[in-house]
Structure to design on (652 residues):
């Protein structure tokens, strides 16, 4: 099966992003390994510029626009991390961004997006369709959409995180048995699957979603795109997607080993664990892979397993509330 | 002037510690650099095993003991981070540890030390001398002291953090103008000064201390060891030392460019900044270098400056309290 993005496309993006994005560390704690009976590696994209992996894909997409297109600007929808990545990438490349955000997006993320010079247009997550709002803005302004995942260049940029993960595992002499990727629109999951399928065929890739937002897991089982029920909530705001998209889902259906879920309580426990044992700040949606491991949903004993910590954009008050509340 | 430890000694320790300690990342945030008008690099030893750089020196010291000495065990005094490092190193090397801790040491650190199998003996910071308690235990039990800084092997082990910092700066094509090191007993400060003096002579090294605990800064000015007044408090528990010791002070007097201070309020602001912009958990005593920079005491504009984030051992409740309180 031919996919819209290849390992070669990802390898091409990597040097262009050098100096723009960080080569985030692959963290390991020998005492945690002893506790879990396996080898756990965390790709710390929460330490990425703008606090999430999203700037990789956004920058790579906007870099391919003409001077005229950049002058007109870009538009996208995002609950936060992709918004920050697009806003910063647009700023760095002399463009401008309009961001469509759900009205219940964390205040800290909205303020941060505005601080990067982007304009915010809000919509109601339950009654409106973000894609419709973006399309209207595209038509009225001529701005080009930079989707969070459904574009080959966005996937190629995001895939550089997975490529680094693969290279850094090699530097640690670690042979990856599996990689668990927090899964919203499924873009980073798909890119990771493409990297591993070509570079490390023995490595299984799983998408991990919050309970009640496991559209990709259920779609994989049904072998067709199935949406989530409306009106549900999770603390994992970054990956509250309604339904898999038609760019990433065929890749994930072809290449993923499966889908996993984690509850909000398990995610909070994983955030606390990351605080105590890795001294890093992880936002809820970025902790689902770690949560799936710590809760025992995914057993890493005797194996080497990586998970991507996709972001760390959470304000101090909410962070404390989530760590303390049962 | 000949020092008790050389760059060669530190280079010898590095491969022996490989696989035992982490090569912690040197973090950089391009947006922070733009904000500060200079290049800021953070050597993230808070992401080290046991949450601080201390395990480097402890392991290297205990590795040099005979089988018989290891069976008898070690003793040390520490407000926390060195205790964790010694306890874990002793455990890894089949030895045992007694830790003399101030009675007001953070509960989380005491619990963590005990969890690593070490025995704790407490003393009163204002009325007793920790060295006397350690000496009594040495005499009664035959245990060998692993001091927090006043031993050439401890200095050589700690120096591997500075050696990594130097190498990683090179990988980032950064020429270091200065390195700011949180300074308690002055061991990591001295080791860093030795590394830079030999490997990067253009790099100035500064010790940074909390206000009222600036014994090294005042001793450098007096050119002799001067103690702090008793009965003072700071949130920087990890570096509340009474007076420079006679092993590290001559090195620091010979090699340091100077001493800097930061107030508790400035330290709290630095902890919050690290949370928001680097998504890492920094304990108070590890944030003094960053605090000296952010407060403007040390101007990095137009320069490349690194600081060592020496540890991240702080419980969630205290972390939140320090970030929220004015």
């Amino acid at each position: 099966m031919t996919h819209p993005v290849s390992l070669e496309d990802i390898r091409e993006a990597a040097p262009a992003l050098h100096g723009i994005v960080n080569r985030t560390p692959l963290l390991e704690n020998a005492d945690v390994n002893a506790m879990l009976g396996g080898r756990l590696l965390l790709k710390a994209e929460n330490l990425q510029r703008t606090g999430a992996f999203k700037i990789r894909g956004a920058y790579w997409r906007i870099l391919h626009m003409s001077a005229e297109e950049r002058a007109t600007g870009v538009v996208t929808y995002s609950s936060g991390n992709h918004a920050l990545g697009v806003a910063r990438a647009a700023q760095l490349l002399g463009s401008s961004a309009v961001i469509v955000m759900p009205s219940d997006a964390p205040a800290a993320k909205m303020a941060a997006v505005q601080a990067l010079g982007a304009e915010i247009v809000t919509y109601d997550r339950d009654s409106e369709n973000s894609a419709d709002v973006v399309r209207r803005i595209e038509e009225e302004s001529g701005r080009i959409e930079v989707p969070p995942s459904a574009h080959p260049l966005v996937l190629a940029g995001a895939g550089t995180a997975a490529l680094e993960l693969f290279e850094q595992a090699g530097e640690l002499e670690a042979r990856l048995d599996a990689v668990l990727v927090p899964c919203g629109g499924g873009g980073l999951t798909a890119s990771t699957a493409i990297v591993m399928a070509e570079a490390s065929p023995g490595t299984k890739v799983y998408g991990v979603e919050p309970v009640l937002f496991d559209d990709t897991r259920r779609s994989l089982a049904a072998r067709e795109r199935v949406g989530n029920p409306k009106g549900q909530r999770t603390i994992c705001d970054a990956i509250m997607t309604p339904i898999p998209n038609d760019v990433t889902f065929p890749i994930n259906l072809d290449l993923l080993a499966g889908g996993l879920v984690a509850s909000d309580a398990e995610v909070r426990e994983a955030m606390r664990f990351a605080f105590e044992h890795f001294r890093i700040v992880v936002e809820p949606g970025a902790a689902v892979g770690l949560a799936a491991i710590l809760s025992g949903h995914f057993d890493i004993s005797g194996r080497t397993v990586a998970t991507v910590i996709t972001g760390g954009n959470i304000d101090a008050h909410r962070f404390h509330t989530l760590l303390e509340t049962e």
